[in-house]
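To the team - 1,6-di-O-phosphono-alpha-D-glucopyranose complex, inputs and output below.
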Amino acid sequence: MNIHTVATTPFADQKPGTSGLRKKVAVFQTPHYLENFVQAVFDCVAAPPGSTLVLGGDGRYYNREAIQVILRMAAANGIGRVLVGQGGILSTPAASCVIRKYQCLGGIILSASHNPGGPAGDFGIKYNTGNGGPAPEKITDAIYARSRELGSYRIVAAPDVPIDRPGTHALGAMQVEVIDPVADYAELMEALFDFAAIREMLAGGFRLCFDAMHAVTGPYAHEILERRLGAPAGSVINGVPLADFGGGHPDPNLTYAGQLVAIMYGTATATPAPDFGAASDGDGDRNMILGRNFFVTPSDSLAVIAANATLAPGYAQGIAGIARSMPTSAAADRVAEKLGVPCYETPTGWKFFGNLMDAGKVTLCGEESFGTGSSHVREKDGLWAVLFWLNILARRRMPVEEILHRHWAEYGRNVYSRHDYEGLPLDIANGIMAQVRERCGDLSGRRFGDYTVKFCDDFSYTDPIDGSLSTGQGLRIVFDDGSRIVFRLSGTGTEGATLRLYLEAYEADPARQQVDAQLSLAALIAIADEISQLRQRSGRERPTVIT
Ligand code: G16
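Output:
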């Protein structure tokens, strides 16, 4: 085998963020940039000889080129076998499923998730460990440290491996197995959910629309929703994965999934809106759930799934516990309390759920950032959430909106919204955070209209399993009645800074639960601005995205 050792110099900016290393495509195309990071991964993972690795991505621009580079580097670094998704495609949850099913060493997933793609867009890479989940911080920190001292990387000289058809190929001493990216995942979904009940509901005229946003879930949704469950052809829209996502922003929220929103709110055509709508993101781990004319917040979605979990065969025995990220609303906490199971509050980032799931402490996890999942894999899982909702709807036989109204009547409503200020200059965003941090000390006990501050802090988390400490995870202002304002800088953007403002107010009175969230939260929005001087400092009159 022709192994080359290529001299290189470190790049200073290869610190993985909330979920892997994400940069502009042009940065990844800089000579040695991708190779350096991949070598740092191989050096830190120290794979035993002959190990099996999973490799795939969301199909975005540069996916195919990167796959070939990583295959050649894997061969040069002693990997025994790589399972690569056909065409270089594997959704993030499918990659997690394959890593677990075949007990692989880990996997490399190429994705910048919901960030736009194409030559001017973003690219990303992350390493998942043998449990199928994102590498924990101690590994990503080690990868970063290694990337800063790297002097060379190893790669074999070989022609491209054909990855467009299933089959097995040799690359030096390494075996490359091209696998069907959908089959293992679809089989797992069939084992968890009541496909017969969903099929019957669809045959009875229930209509759904799933927007794959020209991203990775297209092939998965066509196979599972249309072929296996019998939804009519056309139920899946934008189902062909494109390298630039058709020029769209593959983020399933009310702003970027505009086509689906128009369909579900009946403004697209004269035909009545479908009964159920959903969308997933670039790499298939996020989800948005819509009813006819109705948006389910991700926080509420987690709570409803938890409250109805036993309706799905895979969860019929009940759940061990729930975990949610700190900025996610406490709606799930109320369900956990009623079920008598624990609810954990972690920092933002799916990687913080892994230890809890591995230890059997939680079954369901969720984040306000359109992520929901369970211990069936170790990633959040967009289609899984869609199937869970379909399973619930097939058993409860009532509109999405009614399920939510009944849920709020029973548990109270955690009225919730997130306001994103995208693309802020870094110094402005840091200035706003500094302003809140500075005020934090003397806020306790202060009154703002009807609200009295209980405490204000910078959230930190000690992992209950391995004791690791994560600090600086978001500034939270908590009021006496449990209402909250949270300020946090996103860790996934590639341009400037994105400031996230999370707002939550508890409403126990059913008569007031159906008021528009922005109206219910108006007082908290004004308090947030008063404390942070957000509008004045940013020069922005309104957020870029409201969810
Ligand atoms: C990633 C992480 C999530 C996190 C989200 C938002 O999602 O996996 O755990 O909640 O980013 O993070 P931030 O608020 O720092 O931008 P994805 O779908 O981008 O991989």
